[in-house]
Amino acid sequence: MRTLICYGDSLIEASDLDGPSTWPSRVARRLKINVINSGIGGDTTGGLLGRFYPEVVQQDADAVLIMGGTNDLKNTSWMMGCIPTQPVTSSWPTSQLKC
């Protein structure tokens, strides 16, 4: 069976809906494929990068759909020339930014 990873933030997670009502679940039923919902509400592109390898690359899926970035608009420090001082991980604290 083919596998699709839906990867991103709350646009993917849809935590306000019951599992079977989320759009990734509906896609799985409609297309008769395995869909992995890898959405985490509130995640940013830094968090997405930090968990990309274990949650996407290592899964060896047939396809990946990525939706994210809107939460970065809440924290605009990245637009002011801030750079990470440590490798990016999913638990990346803002204290590791050098501006």
Notable traits:
99 residues, alpha/beta, Rossmann fold, 3-stranded parallel sheet, two-stranded antiparallel sheet, 3 helices
Give a summary of the structure in a few sentences.
With 99 residues, this protein is an alpha/beta fold. 24% of the residues lie in helices and 21% in strands.
Instruction: Give Rg in angstroms.
Output: 15 Å
Strand content: 15-25%
- How many extended strands? 5
For the terminal residues, how far apart are their CA atoms? 47 Å
What is the level-2 CATH architecture name?
3-Layer(aba) Sandwich
- Assembly state here? single chain
Structural class: alpha/beta
What is the CATH superfamily label? Answer: SGNH hydrolase
Please describe the biggest sheet, giving its number of strands, its sense, and whether it closes into a barrel: 3 strands, parallel
Largest sheet, spatial ordering of strands: 2-1-3
> Any idea how many domains?
1
The average pLDDT score comes to 81
Order of helix and strand elements from N to C terminus: EHHEHEEE
